[in-house]
């Protein structure tokens, strides 16, 4: 807040900045596999387990030495090609970008650095971490384990980072954007002024079911267009927050209704 920004952009990392989720990719290919991983996501959405336990089981299933895991992901995971120009535009317009992730900070920073270079240091990253298991080194097979950011059922409750900004006095409070795609973003969904939910992903289904206002994006080009319109005063946050549910009703949100929307659901801004 030292530059007194009028807008702050918070974003998930995996599946949002990246074209595919690095943790899912690692679990599917060198962990317990896609079927078990997807079932865990469904169980989280249905409230059968919390995200913390689901994610821990995913990461515990990966036993490769940690440096190998980082290199495996650097070699295979790509960033949305529109993220770099969006981030550059944000830097030029005093809009801080903060990455809030349930992934592990060393992996996130390695992927950002390999894709956007020195500018990656200007991104604040808040995520989970990693440590050596007792008596082992992270360089060994089965030698590392996940360290959660906090004690919540999310492991990293992203709302904890958003709320201090929301509570600022009106003359200091920035407009807050958040972009995400899946179950790790549920804690942040209600805490922002405008939520960008990725088309065709679990976060859209959650927003419709729980009556959380949102708008849809395919990639960061969509996000940049919408943010630029809001910053320029061409579209209000309230107007943008109505669009997601309207697109869902029109069959253009990329997800099929699993049943009738929650009674009264209508994506109106808070």
Explained architecture:
- With 270 residues, the protein is of the alpha/beta class.
- 39% of the residues lie in helices and 15% in strands.
- It is built from eleven helices and seven strands.
- Strand 2, helix 6 and strand 3 form a beta-alpha-beta unit.
- The longest helix has 12 residues, at 34-45.
- The two termini are 24 Å apart.
Strand content: 5-15%
Biggest sheet descriptor: 7 strands, mixed
Compute the gyration radius: what is it? 18 Å
Q: How many strands in all?
A: 7
Helix content: 25-40%
What's the CATH topology name? Rossmann fold
Task: Please tell me the total number of domains.
Answer: 1
In CATH, what is the homologous superfamily?
HAD superfamily/HAD-like
Strand order of the largest sheet: 4-3-2-1-5-6-7
Principal-axis shape equals: globular
Main attributes of the structure:
11 helices, 39% helix, alpha/beta, Rossmann fold, 270 residues
Short account of what is shown:
The chain is of the alpha/beta class.
Question: Can you lay out the helices and strands and say which pair or pack?
Answer:
Layout: E1 7-11, H1 22-30, H2 34-45, H3 51-60, H4 66-76, H5 83-92, E2 97-104, H6 105-116, E3 124-132, E4 144-147, H7 159-166, E5 175-180, E6 194-198, H8 202-210, E7 215-217, H9 220-231, H10 237-241, H11 243-249
Parallel strand pairs: 1-2, 1-5, 2-3, 5-6, 6-7
Antiparallel strand pairs: 3-4
Helix pairs in contact: 2-3, 4-6
């Amino acid at each position: 807040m030292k530059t007194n920004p009028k807008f702050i952009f918070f974003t998930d990392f995996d599946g949002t900045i990246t074209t595919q989720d690095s943790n899912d990719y690692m679990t599917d290919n060198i962990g317990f596999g896609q079927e078990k991983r997807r079932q865990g996501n469904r169980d989280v959405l249905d409230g059968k387990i919390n995200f913390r336990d689901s994610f821990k089981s995913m990461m515990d299933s990966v036993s490769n030495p940690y440096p190998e895991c980082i290199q495996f992901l650097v070699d295979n995971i790509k960033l949305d090609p529109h993220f770099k120009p969006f981030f550059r535009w944000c830097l030029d317009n005093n809009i801080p970008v903060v990455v809030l992730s349930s992934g592990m900070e060393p992996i996130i920073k390695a992927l950002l650095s390999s894709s956007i270079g020195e500018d990656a240091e200007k991104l604040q990253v808040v995520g989970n971490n990693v440590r050596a298991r007792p008596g082992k080194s992270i360089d060994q097979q089965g030698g590392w384990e996940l360290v959660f950011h906090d004690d919540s059922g999310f492991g990293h409750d992203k709302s904890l980072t958003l709320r201090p900004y929301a509570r600022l006095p009106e003359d200091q409070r920035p407009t807050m954007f958040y972009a995400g795609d899946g179950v790790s973003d549920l804690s942040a969904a209600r805490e922002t002024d405008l939520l960008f939910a990725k088309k065709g992903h679990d976060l859209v289904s959650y927003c419709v079911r729980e009556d959380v206002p949102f708008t849809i994006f395919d990639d960061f080009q969509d996000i940049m267009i919408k943010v630029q319109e809001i910053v320029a005063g061409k579209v209000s946050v309230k107007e943008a927050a109505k669009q997601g549910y309207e697109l869902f009703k029109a069959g253009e949100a990329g997800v099929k209704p699993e049943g009738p929307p929650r009674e009264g659901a209508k994506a109106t801004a808070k």
